[in-house]
Each structure stands twice: as structure tokens, then as C-alpha cells.
Amino acid sequence: MKRRGAAAAGNGIWILAVLLGVAAFFYPVLFGGQVFSSPDAQAPQGFAVYAEAWRARTGQYPFWNPFIFCGMPSYAALAYNPDIYFPDWIFKLLGNMAPPMLWLIAYYMIGAVALFAFLRDRGALPGPAALGGLLFALTPNLIAVGGHGHGSQLVNSGLIPVVLLALHRFLARGTTSWLALLALALGAQVLRGHVQIAFYTWLVVAIYLGFYVADRRRGGSTFAVPLARGLGGVVLALVLAVLLGAVIILPVAAYTPHSIRGGGPTGGVSIEYATAWSLGWAELLTLVVPSAFGFGGATYWGTMPFTDYPNGYMGILTLGFAAFGLWQTRGRGQGFFVVLAVLGLLIALGKHFFLYDLFYRLLPFWNKFRVPVMILVLTQLAVASLCALGLSRMLALAREAPAAASPAARLCGRLAAAGLVLLAVVLVAGQPLRDRYAAAFRSNPRIVAQHRDSPAEAARLGRLAASRAHADLARCLTLFSLAATGGHFLLRRGRRLAPGLFLGGVALGSALDLVPIGREIMAPVTAPPTVLTRVTEPDPVTTFLSGQPGPFRMYPLEEFRSNRFATFGIASVGGYHAAKPRAYQDLLDAFGIETLEIFRHPERYRFMDLLNVRYLVTSLDLGASGRFPLVHAGPVRAYENPTAGPRAFLVGEAMVEAEPARVLARLADPAFDPARQAVVASEVGPLAGPDVTGSARVVEHELNWVVLEVTASGPALLVLGELYDVGWRATIDGRPAPVVRADHIFRSVRVEEGTHRVRFDYMAPGFRLGLGLSVAAGAVILGLGGVGSWRGLRGRRGRREGGT
Asked: How does pLDDT run across 542-561, given as a tens digit for each residue?
């Protein structure tokens, strides 16, 4: 018992060191009052600010966002689903007592500590295991993910080591408390809403189970749990995780076929769109030199559309000790990490390697993902783990007889000599190397296309990128040579060179390598908290628009992909979301609304009328045309569209057409008058004809419902100029009425002659059923955890009473 307590205390000290290491790196945002302020961090603020205020005012849970794309689901599109991810409740309780970014930094800490514990189970010594956890958490790619506003991706990445730890300990020990944690962590990933990283985690589980099965069949000693019980338990955990996430899964599943992620011809995004962010073969050089293809931004000249940081770099010492570990531990159970590292790297190649295309065609859900380089998190986790195991092996060799350590010592000596020779060459031939790099940079087709009219700027950027790459190469060679030299002396004179001193040197070298890169990635997006609240501050043009009677939409020419106008309850025909409605994207593409192509085709202005666009917002001078009178002057101007149609209107004719391409063709036909006719997806019944008269007035317009007063001279179709979705239900004078898709994107109902009160209500499909399933699964998981903990306490009490 004393030995077990001492070991626990020793692990506790290393865990504290890991936590302090993460806290020290993120000092500016933990203790310096700073926040991450990238555009992706600010984008969700607009609707969230409005929705929170609306929720406080109405007491209703917001499911719909009417302010972008003519409306879209906010909950089912994973754009805004507050209070569903239960760990956030802890940070809400802390409120203003906690730093604003603590909820994010906590997952760097969780990932590092969980990986430390997992590596200890896999045989790593405490110090190397702690360093492995830190190396994973402080990988530049992971720093960039959190710093650049991808909070859900970072949270789910930080939970991967938790899943691995719980999975391993259940298979090794069989306790239900670890099974419960496995289900809880997997379910939490689903609830956090980053489906792609959650899917990758299930891939990790499947690979680990493969090694578990192989170990059990050959009578290995890594896992103690029998095969049937182990596989059955993991299947149970996966089922519970799905049920725990049902409150998200069911609404998302209902929306996905109608979004650009699932509404394409293949049931997902196109392979070209999915693989745009693929790591090029040549960019594998960034594994050893971070700025081999520029450091991101204007100096990036790789194969991806753009990037702000080096995606693949994980530390030269991390790679070096991982390779040493593989050489020294062949056949010692490290196959899982090798498979994970190689698979992640090959998938990250995307369109440059056949594996991604194979998975795209064969694996369920894979065709809904994009950004292949995102899977590098698995490679980086595996390499950090191999590094910890390699360091552990080197420290163990240093304690063995010199003869046993001699081959490794010789290898380290040779590597040190080779590194020093290469470093000398790099330093001596510095200018020619930089010149060749700069020439390659300038001649790259990407750079040529970007700077066709500014060759001087291309030359300047080339020199800048070359200097950075040369400096990084020299630094990496220096650190590599020093580490190899230290390893040589450790293995030659292990009794004289303290292993702790060597480990400290490796940690310092890794810090000198990774910390400056991570801080450089963070610096442009670190700012005072006022930056995040700035989007909630009205400017002259939003103040003007907020004072206009509605409902109406505006067309922000320069800010078409901005969500900030939703903060003020101003509806835009633009906006940004990675899973925007498919039907609306079809409309944007067909009529050039998003690309400003519409202004080269004045005959298409009627589509702005149809979309209820009353104002155009721009810094450009549109007065010369006379088509749009200026109604608000300033740096950002507002022009009125005098022919803008109303948000709701009556038509007396309806043509049935369900094929999207034919619907768009009819809408484009100059003979089609959207104020008198509608193209509907299904029969609506007899209508009064083109001479029908009447009015449609919006009397209530809230997030989840719209109420209208309608008067019609005969049977007519009421068209509400807002996005159709399967979650919308309608009542006419309190009686249910079918909602029909009209004009490709709108929702409509048939009304009879006379005056009526029409109400549209929205509920995310599957939400109520999913909520019940999630609550039930949560209770089962807590029960499993409680039973496992009670059994563990009883076992420990029995051992104490027995004197063991």
C-alpha cells in the first residue's frame, strides 16, 4: 500500500508539472486578461448575442436563425446549441471568477494529463510521459486550432487521450467505472458538435480494438479482460455514447441532407471541395522544418488554398526520440502508435494519395467531411507518445550495462556528427540556399497568380520566407545535434550524467523549439476581451438599419459572409456557415448573388426583390446608376432598393415542379413573375388565379415562430419569404395546415378566401426524442460509474482490512 501511495504521489507531482507547463504557455490568456480574437472566434458572436437576449426575454430555447441565408437552423446546424454540452455547466457556474478562455485552455490540460496517464500505463517513465503529454498539447497545429477560433475541434481533440485512457484501462482492468468514462467521453464529443474529430476518435477506438483482439488471441499480457467481455463492453459504451448524443444526432441527421454537407449528388460534399485542404507530398518537409513552405499567410506557397500556420510540425526532438523509440522497441507493443501516425499522415495527403478517395467512397459519413489535414491530430498524438516511449527507453538503457547501451550510443554519436556537418553546410552556404528558395518561391504558380501585377512584392515575400526557412532549418539541426550529443554521453556515461539532467535538457530544447512557434501563432489573434464584444457595438449603418420598419433584408456587398448584423436583429441575404442550406446555395450559385455577378445583370435585380432586399450596404458609390438611391451616407453607405418585395405575399397561381434545376430555370425565366406566381414542390389545391387580391402582414416575428394576418379575395397561396425546413409547422386559425416549399427556398401554405391568422412554428426535428434518450443514457452511464466506483472502494477496503 505504501509503494502504491508513493507512486500515486509521484504521478501527482508530474501531473502538476504538466498543468503548470500548459498554464505557463497560455499565461497571456489565463492570467494576462487576453482572449483569442480570430475572425472564426468572432463569427459566432453575432447570432449568439441576439439569441441569448431573446432567450432571456421569451424563456424559449432558440432553434432557428432568421438573420442569415433567408434563415437556417441554428441548433441542427451546430451553429448555436447552448447548455447541451454538459461540461460547460461547470464554467458557467464559475462565471466571471474564471478567465474568459479557461473553458478552452482546460482541454489542453485535460488532453495532456490524460495522455500522461495513458503513457504511464503503456510503460513510459513518469518524466517522459509528462513531456509526451505536454508535447501533444503544445503542438503548433493544436495551438492554432484553439487560438484561431475552432473551439469545438480543440475540445474534441483534447478528449481523444481521455477516450484512449478509459478504453485501455477498461480492457486492462475490466472495471465498469472506466467503461462509464469511455461512454461519457465519446458522448461528450458528440455533444460538443465537431462530428469530424468525433469520427476520427471512433477510428482510433477501432484501431485500438484491433490490437486488443490480436493481443488476446496470441496470449499477450497487455490486456487482462477476456475477448467477449472486452468487445461487448466497448460496444455498450459506443451505444451509450450515441444515445447520450442523441439530442444532437437526431436533429443534425434530419438537417444534413438539406445542407451543403449532405445535399450534394453523392449525399455529401464533392470530392474536390472535401480535399481542398490536402497536405502536398512536398509539404511533408514541414514535419522537420516548420516553414519549409512558408509560415502561413502571405508567405505560404504550398498546395492548400491558404493556411495561417505550419500544419504538420510537431518538434524536431519529438520526431527524433519517436524514431529512436521505434528502433529500440521493435515488437514491444508500439504498433498501435505506428499505425495511428502513418494512417493520419496518409489521410492528411487527401487528394494526393488514393486512401482518402477510398474512404470517401466506402466509409459512412466520410463524404461529409472536409479539410483532410485535420486528421494530423492523430499523427501528432501518436508521435508525441512514441517520443515519450523512446525517451523512456533511452533512460532505461542508461541504467543498464555499457555493452547493452553501446549500439544506441554509437548511433547517437553518428547522428550528432551528421547533424553538425549538415548545420555547418547550411550556415556556410546560407545565401545560395536562401537565393534558391526565394527563386522557387517566386516561380511557384500560386505566387505567380497572386502577384502577377506586383513582382516586387513577390520578391520581398520570397526573401522573407527564405530567411525564415533557413533560420528554422539551422535551429532544428542545432537542437537535433545537441540532443543526439546528449544522448551519446548519457548512454556512454549514464552513471555520471544524471538522467534527470538529460530529460530536463530535452524538455528545454523542446520548449525552445515549440514555444516560440506557438506564441507566434497566438500573437496575431490574442487581444483584450473588448475585441469580442466589439461586434456587439452598433456603428452608424447598423443604427440606421435597426431604426427602419421591418421585416426586410439587407445586402452587404463587402461583408457578404459576415454574421455580425445578426447581433442587431438585422436580416442579411449573406452570412457564413460551413453547412449552409443546400437550396440557398443553389440560388446563390444560379444567380450570382454571392459573387456580385448580379450587378452585371440588371435583369436579375428581381431576385433581390424576391428576397426582400430593401437595402444595399457598401462603401462603394452606387449613385451613378440612379437605380438605388442613397438613404444613409458615411464611410459605409446604405442604398435603398425601391422595388423590394415584401417578406410575405399572396399569389394566385402555382406550378408544381420538384426538380431543383428545373425550378431554378423557371425562376430565371423573364416571363416568370414571382409576385403573381409560385413554383411549388407539391400540389397545393385550386387557387383563385392571377387576379387574386389581398394582404399578408407579419404581426409577430420571433426566432422560433412567425405570425401573420392574411386577407385574401379567394383561395391563394401565402408565400413567406423565409427558408423552408422540415421542422416548420403551420396552423391557420389554430388548425394544422401543410407547409409546402415554394420558389425553391421559401415556405408557403394555402389559405381560403377571407381573413385568417397564420402561424409558423419551428422545432428542431428529433430534439424532444433525442433529449429523452440523452437523459436516459446519462443516467445509465452515471449508474455504471457509480457501481464501478463502489466496487473499487469496497475492494480497497478489503485489502486494507486484510493487511495487504
From this structure: 999 999 998 999 999 888 98
Q: Are residues 654 and 757 in the same domain?
A: yes
**Residue 793 within a domain:** no
Same domain, 579 and 658: no
Alpha-carbon distance 740 to 685, whole Å? 11
pLDDT, tens only, 225-268 = 999 999 999 999 999 999 999 999 999 999 999 999 887 777 88
Nearest CA to 405 out of 321, 502, 489, 500 is that of 489
CA atoms within 13 A on the CB side of 308: 18
**Residue 30: strand, helix, or coil:** helix
609 and 711 part of one domain: no
Rounded CA-CA distance 476/390 in Å is: 19
pLDDT exceeds 50 at position 804: no
Q: Which three cell numbers stand for residue 89?
A: 455547466
Assess whether 584 and 654 both reside in one domain.
no
Q: Assess contact for 105 and 28: CB atoms under 8 A.
A: no
Q: Are 234 and 210 in contact (CB under 8 A)?
A: no
Q: Show the DSSP H helices in 76-192 as ranges.
A: 88-94, 102-121, 126-137, 140-147, 151-173, 176-192
Q: Let me know whether 613 and 669 are in one domain.
A: no
Distance CA 74, CA 663 (A): 26
**669 and 574, same structural domain?**
no
The parent domain of residue 654 ranges over 648-762
> What phi, psi does 199 have (nearest 5°)?
-65, -45
> What pLDDT, on the 0 to 100 scale, is given for residue 493?
72
Domain-terminating residue out of 609, 640, 671: 640
Burial 307-346 (b: 16+ CB within 10 A, else e): bbbbbbbbbbbbbbbbebbbebbeeeebebbebbbebbbb
Residue 757 falls within a domain, yes or no?
Answer: yes
pTM value?
A: 0.92
**Could you tell me if 432 and 408 are in contact, meaning their C-beta atoms sit under 8 angstroms apart?**
no
Summarize the chain as % helix, strand, coil (round to 5): 60, 10, 30
Cβ atoms of residues 637 and 630 within 8 Å: yes
Domain boundary (608, 640, 672) is at 640
- Both 620 and 719 in one domain: the answer is no
The grid coordinates of residue 330 equal: 521493435
For the chain, the domain total comes to 2
Q: Are residues 625 and 671 in the same domain?
A: no
50's grid cell: 441576439
3-state secondary structure 369-429: CCCHHHHHHHHHHHHHHHHHHHHHHHHHHHCCCHHHHHHHHHHHHHHHHHHHHHHHHHHHC
Query: Is residue 567 domain-resident?
Result: yes
| Residue 677 in domain | yes
Res 42: pLDDT: 62
Angle at Cα 781 formed by Cα 777 and Cα 782, nearest 5°? Answer: 115
3-class state of residue 758 by DSSP: strand
Separate counts of helices (H) and strands (E) for the chain:
29, 20
For residue 623, what pLDDT is reported?
Answer: 74
How far apart are the C-alpha atoms of 482 and 479, rounded to whole Å?
5
* Contacts for 167-172: CB closer than 8 Å, 24+ residues apart: 167/205, 167/208, 167/234, 168/118, 168/121, 168/122, 168/208, 169/121, 170/225, 170/230, 170/233, 170/234, 170/237, 171/212, 171/223, 171/224, 171/225, 171/230, 171/234, 172/121, 172/222, 172/223, 172/224, 172/225
Which amino acid does the sequence have at 521?
I
Rounded to whole angstroms, the Cα distance separating 260 from 577 reads: 10
Q: Could you give the 3-state DSSP secondary structure of residue 748?
A: strand
